Amino acid sequence: MMTLKGSKIYLRALEPEDLEFVYAVENNEAIWEVSNTQTPYSRFLIRQYLENAHQDIYEAKQLRLGICKNNSADAIGLIDLFDFDPKNKRTGVGIIIQDENDRHSGYGKEALGLVIDYAFNQLQLHQLYANISTENSASLSLFTTFGFEKIGVKKDWNFTRNRFHDEALFQLIKK
């Protein structure tokens, strides 16, 4: 099992015991906007997903890791590498901290730093990208802290809360 450790948190592979946590995250309508989710997920589908979570990133073209505080095995968030493209040496990255009380505590920042290091040094990728709502100030701040640059804006890209919202595309290219 892969573990990436920082000073406050560590990242770990998902386990069958994470079923209820992943179920709660995937079915939290308040964050559907950032995850491009439109319908609830059943426990059955999430259980199937967790049973296949042993596939490596080259097979699954994605990697989802639990974000855990150093003193706990319970996940407080998820960080994803998605649309993994080994030929072009790039992947998308997304992050969510489930409980608002755990946000703005440095956990997301540390998790993103660990994943950037993993992507560039272990997977030997050339670039990472993120799609971020132009209204999501916390994510905009987090990603730009690591040098992600806005390379474009997709106008009226997502329809949520009865109106269209712009989404920015950010890239981080390995120096």
Automatic annotation (TrEMBL):
Where is each N-acetyltransferase domain found?
9-175
Gene3D superfamilies membership:
3.40.630.30
Lineage per the UniProt record: Bacteria, Pseudomonadati, Bacteroidota, Flavobacteriia, Flavobacteriales
UniProt protein name: GNAT family N-acetyltransferase
